[in-house]
Amino acid sequence: HEVDVEGIAATVEWYRQNEAWWRPLLGRSPVVEGATDWGTR
User: Fold this and answer.
1) Does the structure show a pLDDT above 90 at 19?
2) Which of 11, 12, 17, 39 pairs with 3 at a CA distance of 20 to 30 A?
3) Residues 31, 11, 5, 2: is their CA dihedral positive or negative?
Protein backbone atom coordinates (compact mmCIF):
# COMPACT_ATOMS: atom_id res chain seq x y z
CA HIS A 1 0.00 0.00 0.00
CA GLU A 2 1.10 3.53 -0.69
CA VAL A 3 0.84 6.19 1.98
CA ASP A 4 -0.17 9.74 1.07
CA VAL A 5 2.62 11.43 3.02
CA GLU A 6 1.68 14.91 1.79
CA GLY A 7 -1.91 14.41 2.91
CA ILE A 8 -0.83 13.21 6.34
CA ALA A 9 1.56 16.15 6.70
CA ALA A 10 -1.21 18.58 5.74
CA THR A 11 -3.55 17.00 8.30
CA VAL A 12 -0.94 17.21 11.07
CA GLU A 13 -0.29 20.85 10.18
CA TRP A 14 -4.02 21.61 10.33
CA TYR A 15 -4.26 20.13 13.82
CA ARG A 16 -1.21 22.12 14.90
CA GLN A 17 -2.76 25.35 13.64
CA ASN A 18 -6.23 24.63 15.05
CA GLU A 19 -5.53 23.32 18.53
CA ALA A 20 -8.19 25.64 19.99
CA TRP A 21 -10.78 23.70 17.97
CA TRP A 22 -9.81 20.12 18.87
CA ARG A 23 -8.28 20.43 22.34
CA PRO A 24 -11.66 20.93 24.14
CA LEU A 25 -12.99 17.77 22.47
CA LEU A 26 -10.56 15.62 24.45
CA GLY A 27 -12.64 16.14 27.59
CA ARG A 28 -15.94 15.16 25.98
CA SER A 29 -17.58 11.77 26.05
CA PRO A 30 -16.61 9.50 23.16
CA VAL A 31 -18.94 8.93 20.24
CA VAL A 32 -20.25 5.37 20.28
CA GLU A 33 -20.60 3.96 16.77
CA GLY A 34 -24.05 2.52 16.15
CA ALA A 35 -25.64 4.23 19.14
CA THR A 36 -29.40 4.60 18.76
CA ASP A 37 -30.23 6.61 21.88
CA TRP A 38 -29.37 10.08 20.58
CA GLY A 39 -31.24 12.79 22.44
CA THR A 40 -32.56 10.52 25.19
CA ARG A 41 -30.02 11.41 27.85
Assistant:
1) yes
2) 17
3) positive
- What gap in Å lies between CA 38 and CA 15, rounded to an integer? 28
Q: Please compute, for residue 38, the number of CA atoms within 13 A of its CA located in the half-sphere on the CB side.
A: 6
User: Which amino acid is residue 30, in one-letter code?
Assistant: P
Q: CA of 39: how far to CAs of 35, 36, in Å?
A: 11, 9
Residue 3 is assigned to a structural domain of this protein: yes
Asked whether residue 38 is assigned to any structural domain, the reply reads no
Residue-level pLDDT at 7: 94
- pTM, whole model, 2 decimals? 0.58
* Distance of alpha carbon 3 from alpha carbon 6, whole angstroms: 9
User: Where is pLDDT greater, at 38 or 24?
Assistant: 24
